[in-house]
Amino acid sequence: MKLQQLKYLIAIADNNLSITNAAQKIFTSQPGISKQLRLLEDELQTKIFERNGKQLVGITQVGNEILGRARKVMQEISNIKRLSSELSQDDSGCFSIGTTQTQAQYVLPRTFAAFHKEYPNLKIDLQQGTTEQVIEQLRKQEIDFVIASGTAGLGPDIVQIPCYQWDRSILFPQDHELGDLRKITLEDVVKYPLVTYNLSDKNSSSLMRACKKEKLEPNIVFTARDADIIKTYVRKGFGVGIIANMAYDPQADKDLISYPTSDMLPQCTTWLAFHKNLFLKQYMKDFIAMFAPHISQQELIRYLYSEHTSSKELLSRFETKSHNPANLQARAATA
C-alpha cells in the first residue's frame, strides 16, 4: 500500500467519484489513478467503490471505513510536516480558516490585524461560505479552523470551542409602523414580511422554534447570506429585517432603526472548531487566545483531550464567560 494510493482514493471521493475530476484536481493522469485504485483494491482484496460498468457510482460500506482511515493517515502525515515546521520555527506557511460573511466582515478583522502583526510572514487563507459548507470542508480536512454559529454538536472527530454569544436585531425604516411601539414583541414582528439569513434547516432554526413556541407563522419573503444584502432589501421595502446585532452600523445604517431581540429570540453562540487530528502549531494556539481570550490554556487542553461531544455541556461551561471579541477589541482600540 502506498501513500499515493490513499491520496488518490481521497481525491476520488472528494470529486463526486469522478476519476477525471480527481486527476485534474491533483494534477495527475486519469489512467494513473485508475491503475493505482485497481492495485489498492487487489491488495486489500475488497471493492472500495460500487461500479456501473467503468463508472464509479458509490462507495461500499468497507470503502467508507477505508476512506475514513485514509483521511486520518494523510492528516497525520500533514501533522508530522507541521511538527517539523514548528520545531524549525517556520511560520511562513498558510493558515486556512472557513467562516461566514458576518464573522468575516464584522468580527474577525480586528483579530486578524493583531494576529498579522505577530505573524507577518504567515499567509491567512479566509474561505467564506454557509456554516454547512465550511463544516464540510473541515470534515474533509481541507481547512484548519472553522468559525461559525449554530449547528451544535459536530461529532467526536471535531473539537468545538464556544467563543462568544450574541443577539439579533430587528431592522426597519425610520417611518415604519413598528417605530411607533414602545415595546416590540415577536408577535408584532411577524405581522410583517421578514427578510433574514438563509434557513438551511427550518427545524433547527432558533427563529422558527421561537415562532412555533408562540404559535406564530412567520412570512419569510427573502433570505440571503450577507447582512448588507438583507439591509438593502429592507430599504427597498421587502419587509422587516433580522440580522446579527454586530452587523448594524449606527452611522452607515442611520436610516434604519435597530431593535434588540433579547426578549424575543434566544442568543446565538459563535464557536471555533478544528479536527481532532490537527496538530496545533503555536500560531494556531495564539490565534485562539486572541479570538477567545477567556479560554485559558488549561481549558484549551481540556477541550483537546475531552471525549464529550455534548453541546449542552459545552455551553453550560461557557455561559458565564460570554463576550463579543469585536466589542472587546473595539474598546481596547479606543482606550
TrEMBL record:
User: The HTH lysR-type domain covers which part of the protein?
Assistant: 1-59
- GO biological process: any one? cysteine biosynthetic process
Q: Which domain of life is it from?
A: Bacteria
| Keyword DNA-binding part of the UniProt annotation | yes
- Keyword entries, A-Z: DNA-binding, Transcription, Transcription regulation
SUPFAM superfamilies cross-referenced by the UniProt entry: Periplasmic binding protein-like II, Winged helix' DNA-binding domain
Q: Which Pfam families match?
A: HTH_1, LysR_substrate
Provide any one GO MF term from the record.
DNA-binding transcription factor activity
User: Per the record's keyword annotation, is DNA-binding included, yes or no?
Assistant: yes
Q: Which Gene3D superfamilies match?
A: Periplasmic binding protein-like II (3.40.190.10), Winged helix-like DNA-binding domain superfamily/Winged helix DNA-binding domain (1.10.10.10)
Q: Which PROSITE patterns match?
A: HTH_LYSR
Entry's family note: Belongs to the LysR transcriptional regulatory family.
What is the protein named?
A: Transcriptional regulator, LysR family
